Amino acid sequence: MAERTLLNPSQAKEVEEQLFSTLRQQVGRSVPMPLPRSDFWKKVSELLDTIEMEIHDVYKKIGPSMKMQTLQKRQANIRRTATELARKRMVALVQHSASMVLRTEGGGNGQDLAPMDWSRHDPAEREFYSNATEQLNKFKQSVNWNSMQTGISAEEMIGELKLASGTTQLDSFVPESGGLTGQGPPTIALEDDQAPLEESYDEEELLAKADEFPELAGTQPVEEKVTLSEPATGESHAAAMELAPSKKKEEMDFDAWAAADAESEASQEPVLEEVDDSQDLLRIRVTKSLDEPIITIDGEITLGAGDVLFLDEMTANYLVESGVAEIATL
């Protein structure tokens, strides 16, 4: 808890007299009367703290007594007087601020009020006055106060005065709240002289569009398929189903395939037209299934466990060394 500042008896009496005197002056006035000192409300708070400590001391030393009751009545009277004075001064401050902000444009000299002399008022009251003025200015903007006072036609002819961007008002250089006049800086409009930003393009995207083949744009890629020739008799070779790419596992009888293969080799020439005779084909059996197809000289094929395939020597040896297949001689 912050340390309390207490007043001596002479100081307490002086502040108490100033409090009652200020209330008598403020009663019946619509403008806030000057205070006897700039730290008036701070001294009133210290006066109440001093009386509070006196009550505690009397209670500890003497207990409930007439002196204690007198101090309590004095404390209640000061609190009631301070409350009444604060209420009247807040009303007067708001009334003065509203009269300054909402006064009729072009009115007579009798409507002008003297600005507040803040050297004779409390700093807390000046902050309250500035906040009230700010809220009144927001009210004027929300209800279009200028149009209400000057009319729509006058507003269209005069137009809104716009200042150069970056203009700084004089109130910005005043450290005190409220600026030069205590009412805050007036609302101004600034010119928007910034040119719109040019649309930017991605260089990589432009190059990609330039390299695109116009005759192939929008077409779908053609899937390559392995075409197997049929023998002269119209019957397909026994190994055709194994060499053709398929995602489904084909099951076949090995003995029947061997017999059919032996008969076809004795009766006709090899039926694979696109197989290079210079390359030797190896017969392998797949021992492990692969999820992804592999690429061979004939195209893509899918490997499933138990499949028997004829592949070129390089691909077959690679699969055997990888543990995916084994050599299956006839």
Overview of this protein structure:
This protein is mainly alpha-helical and 330 residues long. Among the domains are: 9-105 and 112-165, Methane Monooxygenase Hydroxylase, Chain G, domain 1; 240-266 and 277-327, Ribosomal Protein L9, domain 1 (3-Layer(aba) Sandwich). The chain has 10 helices and 7 strands. It has helices at residues 9-26, 40-61, 66-101, 123-142, 145-150, 152-158, 203-210, 240-243, 254-267, 313-321, and strands at 162-163, 189-190, 281-286, 294-296, 299-301, 308-312, 325-327. α1 (9-26) packs across α2 (40-61), α1 (9-26) packs across α3 and α3 packs parallel to α4. The protein is elongated, with a radius of gyration of 51 Å.
CATH class of the domain at 9-105 and 112-165: Mainly Alpha
Oligomer state of the chains in this structure: single chain
Radius of gyration: 51 Å
Main sheet: strand order:
6-3-7
- At the fold tier of CATH, the topology name of the domain at 9-105 and 112-165 is Methane Monooxygenase Hydroxylase, Chain G, domain 1
Give the topology, please:
Blueprint: H1 9-26, H2 40-61, H3 66-101, H4 123-142, H5 145-150, H6 152-158, E1 162-163, E2 189-190, H7 203-210, H8 240-243, H9 254-267, E3 281-286, E4 294-296, E5 299-301, E6 308-312, H10 313-321, E7 325-327
Parallel strand pairs: 1-2
Antiparallel strand pairs: 3-6, 3-7, 4-5
Helix pairs in contact: 1-2, 1-3, 2-3, 3-4
